[in-house]
Amino acid sequence: MRSVRARASLGATLVVAVALIAAGLAVLAVLRGNLTDRAGLEAEVAAREVAGQIALGVPYADLDMGDEDTHPVQVTDEEGRVVAASEDLEAITGTGAAGVVPAPSAPVPSPGGDDDDHGDDDDDDPARSQVASGTPDFANGTATVDGERGDYRFAAVEVTTGRDVTLTVHAGAPLAAEQEAVDTVRTAMLTGLPLMLLVVAGVTWLVTRRALRPVEGIRRELSAITASEDLGRRVPEPDSRDEIARLARTTNETLAVLEASVDRQRRFVADASHELRSPIASLRTQLEVGEAHPELLDVPGAVADTVRLQVLAADLLLLARLDAGERPGSAAVDLGALVREEVSQRAGDRIVPEVSVADTGALEVTGSRGQLARVVGNLLDNAERHAERSVAVSVRAEGSGVLVEVTDDGSGVPEAERERVFERFVRLDDARSRDDGGAGLGLAIARDVATRHGGTLTVGAAPGGGARFTLRLPVPPGTDSEEG
């Protein structure tokens, strides 16, 4: 069953069915209990009426049994012998004694109280006769009255005569009304249950279809987007504030991110192709000229173009790895030593950076030494490319991180362009005339690496003019990095 509507309808129907069946059984149990208790009360009243007559000394033959057709009565002694019974009672079960005819040896009360076994007249005093006042015993059984057999609820009441003879009066009340009522209710429930379940299934089907209609619209639009490859399209968002509306909004947000990512990749490919085209064309031209006129071959120029291609290819490969989610390493890197090492490799450059490394505080961070060296190198290359006479580098601990600041005395970065300089293949107009081969990837790579290491890279104005790039990287937990 692959349809959500079908599963929801079936689930709702099963739940309602279980609930209705449980409720129906509870109703039947309560109804049967109430009717049985009522029949027991009727039987108790009938039994106490007969017991009261016996307590008053009425002879067994003269006992008024009431309506014998509806309340059969049986009186037994302590030994279980029948001493009195309803006239039309033919058979009985459930009272402990199956007899319906008084036993010949049963004790018979004397109206005048004369008895050879009792010489004391006080023994015949009716005041000593009493009916047990406790809760009577109840039991279900059957009785055949005037040829008709039925189920009865019997109540057993004890009575003590004036001669200290304890008798038990069993009186019954028919259970036919209880059985008929229970059967009627059961039949009504069995008849109405299927109809109720059909209604529940139908309503659930309709409600689910209406609720899932926006989902079908979302599915169709996504299918159309997949077929057309047009990521500019969006799925319809319902006006409701339910889960489906949130699903539609999340889907559109995902499509927007995907569209931006695809556009960024397309621009990246186009810019990379453009950047590669120039050195490849220059190198090809030099090689063709060298092939035709070896004496005109510009070997240094060809080597420079080859190096430019190599650097650009390395930058593109690193960006691809970063975009693929490559995680930085977990090695401990001393940023002070790393900066000194990078600066020492630039002894013959146009401008040698001045290095200032704080002696206090922890300067170690966790990450990839190669990638962090690439960040420092790119910042130094950018500063040297735009500086007039000086470049300064400082490393110090601050708060819960380590700061690396690279400043130059160039023209600086306009405030409106301070985020744009970190975009890929972006070079400001005034920098193009000074650029000797950069592709506009250095700062983009530096920020991506800093972000991957949990840090930040920002640009601002230097105190004496020019630009100041600030790299902040977190120190490992538990390391003392307080500024000294």
Gross morphology is rod-shaped
Give the low-pLDDT segments: 110-124, 430-435
Query: Count the helices. How many?
Result: 8
Instruction: Please indicate the count of domains.
Output: 3
Question: What would your notes on this structure say?
Answer:
- 46% of the residues lie in helices and 18% in strands.
- Mean pLDDT is 83; it is low at 110-124 and 430-435.
- With 484 residues, the chain is α+β, with helices and mostly antiparallel strands.
- It contains 8 helices and 14 strands.
- The chain starts with a helix and ends in a 10-residue tail after the last strand.
- Strands 1, 2, 3, 4, 5, 6 and 7 form a 7-stranded antiparallel sheet that branches.
Short description:
The protein has 484 residues and is of the alpha+beta class. The chain has eight helices and 14 strands.
Can you lay out the helices and strands and say which pair or pack?
Layout: H1 4-55, E1 73-76, E2 82-85, E3 89-93, E4 130-131, E5 137-145, E6 148-160, E7 166-174, H2 176-228, H3 243-292, H4 299-323, E8 331-334, H5 335-344, E9 354-357, E10 364-367, H6 369-386, E11 391-398, E12 401-408, H7 429-432, H8 442-452, E13 456-461, E14 467-474
Parallel strand pairs: 9-11
Antiparallel strand pairs: 1-2, 1-7, 3-5, 4-6, 5-6, 6-7, 8-10, 11-12, 12-14, 13-14
Keywords:
Heat Shock Protein 90; 484 residues; alpha+beta; 3 domains; seven-stranded antiparallel sheet
